[in-house]
Every structure is written in structure tokens, then in C-alpha cells.
């Protein structure tokens, strides 16, 4: 069955993303204990951990808080962002996988406890995490994930091809695995909520203030500078412009489509058992959930757009690909697409974040390539523990100077995009 409404081309802007009115710029020199470059999930989380220690803190943000990947994201808050538990076991062995999983879970917990403690509105909705096999071949990945989760005492519910329609209506998927204690948010509103809380707690937040230079004890914008004992650079992929990591940090592009609101009945029927946020097993995966106002949010990309050097607005090819996907899997829904936007996510070649101290100046700490919002929340706190308590238990995974399978010299010949595409597909293709 085809859609009742033919696809119309949607507005090229994020549905929930509004430039706030009053932004304070950095216009005069100040001095603090810690200056953070970048006001996304990573920078906000670090600022919160630092202010709790009684430090004086400033965030200096290029545009406005939440304007990067954090505010454009689809707001799935689950440890599953980028790597499933069985991926981590395959890559690092069971013991380390459990440590890493707990670390990501701590990011989920941070976001949850802030929403509960400060009660700001950010579209919080309890939703289970559901991974769906989109081919017969990928059923074995789903079974493996289910069995691995059970083996290590993690909750897991398995759906066969016959029972998967109890989780997602009319589906053409071949199997599924789900678990609970996860949720979705409007991540832009979360960032804005945390901005207000942190300002009340004394964090100085400067927006529309791009940092153009990092020195050993200060950062500079066009108009002024912030002197600090410690500097945390949480600018995600823009780190490659501010520090010597041009070969090791790049970005991947993904797109979100948001439909007009569905009726309450259709929305409830889509996830018959309980609300879920779903991923599929495609190499460039699709992901979807309902928003708080019953719109279908669908994300994905294609091979040509994932590694493009700039965000590609008005990408009709991706729009057609995503709307065909929706027609195939949700033929019962009369979808009218209203919004579409691209977003860039910082990535490394092994898809693990890059986080650690500068090798010449240990007062400077870098974080980039957080593989999702919970990762970002956990890494912000980790950086503060590393700077002020010498925490280093996960440094072996995040070391910014680690070697990747494609060395710099070869990357210089083959080009950044190809080097990242090959390394990333090697990493996820073997799942
Ligand atoms: C479309 C999309 C959907 C996603 N969906 C999900 C999801 O559902 N779940 C999930 O877990 N993850 C998701 N992600 C990934 C997640 O959003 C990121 O991993 C996470 O937000 C990274 O946070 P961050 O603070 O490190 O980076 P950002 O949020 O990008 O923050 C970095 C900040 O640094 C600022 N900056 C850059 N250069 C400078 C400079 N020179 N001076 C000052 N400031 C600077 C930027 O303006 C930006 O605000 C999604 C990402 C995208 C793009």
C-alpha cells in the first residue's frame, strides 16, 4: 500500500531548534579556574562537574548552547548509541566491555538525574531501546546481542519474525531485541535547561564567541581572552581546527526527517506493546521514534552523504531514500514530512571518542568524537575527574595519541574521507 499523501519536500530546519534571544558575548578579558570551549552536552556536563567542586568556570561557545550535534540530535538516551553491548565485547573482551558499558550508562544516569532534579521541560519520555534486523542475514546479530546481554545479566527481550509485530506494527523486520530503562528527550531543550541551571550556579556562559586560538594558559576570541589554569576543548569535530588532530578527527553526516503529527490512535498502534526508539541493522543505519507530539522522527543517510565535507541542506536524494524507507516499513501511516535537517557528528577512525590531556601541556584536555549524548555526558565528567583527581582508568580506550589502522602518511595520499570511510566500515562491517 502506498502513502495516501505523496511526499512533499520538507522545511530544511530542525524541528525543535530555535536560536535563543539574548546571548552574552565575551567582550572583556576574564580569569577563571577552568575554561571550556564548546557548549554542547560534553561542555555542559564538564561545567556541571567542575562547579560542584567549587571551581570558577566559563564556557565559551561559537554560536549558542546546544547549536551543534547535541541540539540537532534525535535525543535517544540509551547506552546503545553507536555500539551495542555485543559490539563492545567483540572489540574489547567481556571485562572491558562491561566497564565501558557502565561508563556510558553513567552518562544516561547523569542526564536522567538532571531532568528529575531540576524538572525543566525537555520532552522527557520513557522509551525502550529496540534494535531490528532489516535482513534475514542480520537475524544472527540480533540473536547474538540477546544472548550476550543475558550472559552478562543485562535485560533483554527477543522478538522473532512472528512476534516482532508486537513491538512494531506491520513491520517487515526479521527479528528484534529490546530493553528498558532508556528514554528520549528534546536534546536542544535539555541543553538550554542546563544552561539556565549552570548560570544560576555561577558558570559564566559566553555565546556567539568563536575561539580562534588556544595557548597554554588562555583561549582567545576575536574580542577578548579567558585566562585559566585548565582548558577543556569540547568542540567536537571542530577540534581538528583548534588543535593538532587534523588526521584523527572528522565528521559523519546524518539526517532527520520529522512528519506532521499522527493521530493518537495511529501513534499508539505503531508501538503496540510500549513506546520504543528503534534502530535497524543496515550498515548506514536508520533510526526512528515518535516525538512527544506524535510525529514520526526518522533518521539516516546514504553512502554519498555520510562523509561529505559540509552539511548538505536540501538533500533530495536522502529525502527520497528516507521517505521510501518509511513507505516500506510503515505503509499504514499517512505521513506528511514537515522538517528535515542534516547534522554532523565528530568521529574517529575507530569510532571511539578521543579524550585526554595534551602531551606537552597537561593543563589542556581534549574531548572529541563522543559517540552519542550519554557518552558526551560521561566524558565531560571524566575530563574533570582526570584534571582534578588524576582519573585515568579508561585512558587506554580514549587516548588522543593512539594509532589507527590507517596511518597519517597513507591518509595524506588516500584523503581523509576515504580513510575514515574504510576504517569505520571495517569497524562496523564486522559486526
Ligand atoms: C542528527 C543527529 C542525530 C543524533 N542523534 C543522537 C541520538 O539520538 N542519541 C545520541 O546519543 N546521540 C545522537 N547524536 C550524536 C550526539 O548528538 C553527539 O555525539 C553529541 O551531541 C556530541 O556532543 P558534544 O558536546 O561533544 O558536541 P556538540 O554538541 O557538537 O558541541 C560542540 C560545541 O562546540 C562549539 N564549537 C565548535 N568550534 C568552536 C570554537 N572554535 N569556539 C567555541 N565553540 C566552538 C559548537 O558550536 C558546538 O556547540 C546525533 C547527532 C546528530 C547530528
Could you characterize what this model shows?
This protein is of the alpha+beta class. Helices cover 34% and strands 22% of the residues. It has 13 helices and 19 strands. It has helices at 41-52, 69-72, 85-118, 139-151, 187-200, 239-242, 264-270, 303-306, 316-329, 373-389, 395-398, 408-414, 416-429; strands at 30-37, 57-60, 76-77, 125-126, 128-133, 157-159, 175-179, 183-184, 204-206, 213-214, 218-220, 225-233, 250-259, 276-280, 287-290, 296-300, 337-347, 354-357, 364-368. α1 runs parallel beside α5 and α12 packs across α13 (416-429). Residues 1-7 have low confidence and may be disordered.
Largest sheet: 8 strands, mixed
The secondary structure category is alpha+beta
What is the number of beta strands? Answer: 19
Determine Rg (CA atoms, Å).
21 Å
Overall spatial form: globular
Question: How would you sum up this structure in a few lines?
Answer:
This protein is an alpha+beta fold and 431 residues long.
How are the SSEs ordered, and which strands pair?
Elements: E1 30-37, H1 41-52, E2 57-60, H2 69-72, E3 76-77, H3 85-118, E4 125-126, E5 128-133, H4 139-151, E6 157-159, E7 175-179, E8 183-184, H5 187-200, E9 204-206, E10 213-214, E11 218-220, E12 225-233, H6 239-242, E13 250-259, H7 264-270, E14 276-280, E15 287-290, E16 296-300, H8 303-306, H9 316-329, E17 337-347, E18 354-357, E19 364-368, H10 373-389, H11 395-398, H12 408-414, H13 416-429
Parallel strand pairs: 1-2, 1-12, 2-9, 5-14, 12-19
Antiparallel strand pairs: 3-8, 4-8, 5-7, 6-7, 10-11, 11-12, 13-16, 13-17, 14-15, 15-16, 18-19
The chain binds flavin-adenine dinucleotide (FAD).
Amino acid at each position: 500500500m502506498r502513502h495516501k499523501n505523496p511526499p512533499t519536500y520538507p522545511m530544511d530546519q530542525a524541528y525543535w531548534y530555535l536560536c535563543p534571544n539574548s546571548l552574552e558575548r565575551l567582550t572583556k578579558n576574564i580569569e577563571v579556574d577552568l575554561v571550556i570551549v564548546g557548549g554542547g552536552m560534553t561542555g555542559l556536563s564538564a561545567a556541571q562537574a567542575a562547579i560542584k567542586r567549587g571551581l570558577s568556570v566559563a564556557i565559551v561557545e561559537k554560536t549558542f548552547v546546544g547549536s551543534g550535534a547535541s541540539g540537532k540530535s534525535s535525543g535517544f538516551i540509551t547506552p546503545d548509541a553507536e555500539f551495542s553491548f555485543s559490539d563492545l565485547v567483540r572489540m574489547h573482551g567481556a571485562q572491558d566491555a562491561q566497564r565501558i558499558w557502565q561508563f556510558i550508562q553513567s552518562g544516561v544516569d547523569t542526564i536522567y538525574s538532571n531532568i528529575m532534579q531540576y524538572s525543566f521541560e525537555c520532552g522527557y519520555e520513557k522509551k525502550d531501546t529496540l534494535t531490528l534486523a532489516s535482513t534475514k542475514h542480520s537475524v544472527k546479530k540480533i540473536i547474538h546481542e540477546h544472548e550476550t546481554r543475558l550472559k552478562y545479566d543485562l535485560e533483554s527481550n527477543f522478538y522473532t519474525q512472528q512476534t516482532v509485530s508486537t513491538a512494531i506494527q506491520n513491520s517487515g523486520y526479521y527479528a528484534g531485541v529490546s530493553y528498558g530503562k532508556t528514554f528520549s528527550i528534546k536534546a536542544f531543550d535539555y541543553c538550554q535547561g542546563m544552561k539556565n541551571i549552570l548560570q544560576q550556579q555561577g558558570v559564566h556562559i559566553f555565546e556567539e564567541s568563536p575561539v580562534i586560538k588556544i595557548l597554554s594558559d588562555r583561549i582567545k576570541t576575536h574580542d577578548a581572552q579567558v585566562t585559566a589554569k585548565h582548558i577543556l576543548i569540547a568542540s567536537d569535530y571542530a577540534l581538528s581546527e583548534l588543535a593538532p588532530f587534523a588526521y584523527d578527527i572528522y565528521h559523519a553526516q546524518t539526517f532527520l526527517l520529522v512528519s506532521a503529527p499522527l493521530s493518537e490512535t495511529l501513534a499508539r498502534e505503531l508501538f503496540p506493546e510500549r513506546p520504543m526508539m528503534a534502530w535497524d541493522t543496515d550498515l548506514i543505519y536508520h533510526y526512528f521514534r515518535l516525538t512527544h507530539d506524535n510525529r514520526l522522527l526518522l533518521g539516516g543517510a546514504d553512502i554519498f552523504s555520510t562523509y561529505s565535507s559540509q552539511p548538505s541542506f536540501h538533500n533530495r536524494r536522502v529525502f527520497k531514500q528516507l521517505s521510501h524507507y518509511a513507505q516500506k516499513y510503515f505503509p499504514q501511516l499517512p505521513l506528511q514530512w514537515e522538517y528535515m535537517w542534516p547534522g554532523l557528528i565528530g568521529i574517529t577512525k575507530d569510532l571511539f571518542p578521543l579524550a585526554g590531556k595534551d602531551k606537552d601541556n597537561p593543563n589542556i584536555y581534549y574531548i572529541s568524537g563522543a559517540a552519542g549524548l550519554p557518552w558526551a555526558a560521561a566524558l565531560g565528567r571524566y575530563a574533570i575527574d582526570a584534571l582534578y583527581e588524576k582519573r585515568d582508568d579508561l585512558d587506554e580506550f580514549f587516548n588522543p595519541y593512539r594509532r589507527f589502522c590507517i596511518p597519517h602518511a597513507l591518509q595524506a595520499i588516500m584523503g581523509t574521507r576515504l580513510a575514515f570511510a574504510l576504517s569505520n566500515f571495517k569497524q562496523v562491517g564486522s559486526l
